[in-house]
């Protein structure tokens, strides 16, 4: 028998807020976190805007020595994890430590460390490269440090599947609890790539918006005038638990995780498969795993990156799976407000989806002024909407053809 799994705590570091209440209020009110980049000189870059995390103080979550020894993506992850643990009320002790694990992903990992230490090597020589360079760089270190800080000794791993990372991490953690390998998991994604090298690479791909004069209107999923995605940074971390474990300790349950699907496009390293075929299979697998029919879905938190091909492919995939019901359900992209947080996006958007179910409020797709004729679904344009929704999907799709979907359900005792 598969065990039931619920969400009991969440933590967020994001361009629209560094705590869950601010984050959710920003999404509900359609507030954009995208602006001109302040962390480095963007004069020579075609794209000069991003969803930067503002006013983040890592020393609020770790001591100064540890700050110097960790990359920014790890700092985000640890902050969100501690927030989620406090939110959940879960305590780790000698009796339960080996039944609580950590599964945090990052699409790129410690790129800021790589950039900085490369400069050090060129300017001062190889002997001056930090002895912490490797542990600061590697993508699994968010899971590792969180495990150490929390004392969690259960299954601990990480996912690296580009923009599907956060959802794969949550889905894999969900499986571990379902099949009895853990009673609780700290899971999600973190990313910190608003950096010169990352921007140079994405600009060379011509993948990002160049609407530099109107940064808050630059991320416009499903809109006819979209011109690319807007990069963001941050972390979204959830505490998920076996239902009886959560009930026994009197935890407040935010939502239930009921299904998980993943697939590969096997098509192209960056472009989606034709007609969204891979994304469609992913959603179909998630629905099958959840044991629900397509017409039971009331809301989809879309991948919706504001790219020409991606938004159309996802729309086509939704139509393939849901048929006529596709026009009855609501779809929105919170990336219109946060930007695209790459490996963190699955964690952050899972939290947004869980809150939508909890509060029965659907966050909007802002900047949807002139809908693309090929994107003709209900994208909750510009304003949040009250709606009765029992089951929802959260989609994430990544470079390399990785697709991941989780199914969440409104929890009713």
What would you say about this model in short?
This protein has helices at residues 20-28, 64-68, 72-88, 111-124, 133-137, 141-150, 165-178, 196-204, 243-248, 277-290, 308-322, 335-338, 345-359, and strands at residues 5-13, 35-36, 49-50, 100-105, 156-157, 184-191, 234-242, 255-264, 297-301, 330-332, 361-362, 385-386, 391-398, 402-409.
Could you characterize what this model shows?
- This protein has a ten-stranded mixed β-sheet with strand order 5-4-6-7-1-8-14-13-9-10, with helices on both faces.
- Helix 3 packs across helix 6, helix 7 (about 165-180) crosses helix 13 (about 345-360) and helix 10 crosses helix 11.
- The two termini are about 20 Å apart.
- The chain contains 13 helices and 14 strands.
- It has helices at about 20-30, 65-70, 70-90, 110-125, 135, 140-150, 165-180, 195-205, 245-250, 275-290, 310-320, 335-340, 345-360; strands at about 5-15, 35, 50, 100-105, 155, 185-190, 235-240, 255-265, 295-300, 330, 360, 385, 390-400, 400-410.
- The chain is globular.
- The chain folds into two domains: about 5-250, Peroxisomal Thiolase, Chain A, domain 1, CATH 3.40.47; about 260-410, Thiolase/Chalcone synthase (Peroxisomal Thiolase, Chain A, domain 1, 3-Layer(aba) Sandwich), CATH 3.40.47.
- It has about 425 residues and is an alpha/beta fold.
- The protein is about 35% helix and about 20% strand.
